[in-house]
Predict the structure.
Amino acid sequence: MLLHVPGILTRDEVAGMRAALARADWTDGRATVGPQGAQVKNNRQLPETSPLAQELGRVILDKLGRHPLWLSAALPLRSVPPLFNRYEGGEHYGLHIDGSVRAVPGTNASLRTDLSSTLFLSDPQDYDGGELVVVDTYGTHEVKLPAGDLILYPAASLHRVSPVTRGERIASFFWVQSLVRDAGQRALLFDMDVAIQTLAQEVGLGAPAIVSLTGSYQNLLRRWAEL
């Protein structure tokens, strides 16, 4: 499931991050991947240990923690702190699949990468190319969202970033281990949650049917959640 999550950051918040990132020291993005990934990766990133990356990452995680659509779809258990990348002058990232397990910087913990997120910090009209291309069982999908919007997709998907031929593409990206490992179960819970919220607006949270459906949702989550 690919999900467009709008409005993670406001325009002012994006502008503030872009101003800070314009003064940052970017490094070769190949430093954060293995030998296979290094063959197809050509971009720049902020180092994981960068104080600026850590500061901006905390802002993003705080915003995500209060965004109902993202929470409903991801059901996050733990997350890798957001990273930041930059593409310009033909830079790109060839077709690849993200690693299945990642260490959480600054801790002894690791997480299973169930979901990938890309938060766009550049508007589509400001650069040519740079589409996030995701390949799944339903075909090939090109994603290029307004600044402040996020795309959530399965980390097991083949994906790439097309060459940026004009302007620059700046984004934040990170991985989440979900409470629910199985993608089908997670999608079912998301659809159910959205339906409950829609019906609740029509008949009220206290309606007997809403109470019953909410109970079924919670019992399914209880059955499938891994802590």
User: Anything to note?
Assistant: The chain is about 35% helix and 30% strand. Helices lie at 11-22, 35-38, 51-64, 68-74, 183-203, 208-224. The first strand starts at residue 3 and ends at 5. The longest helix spans residues 183-203.
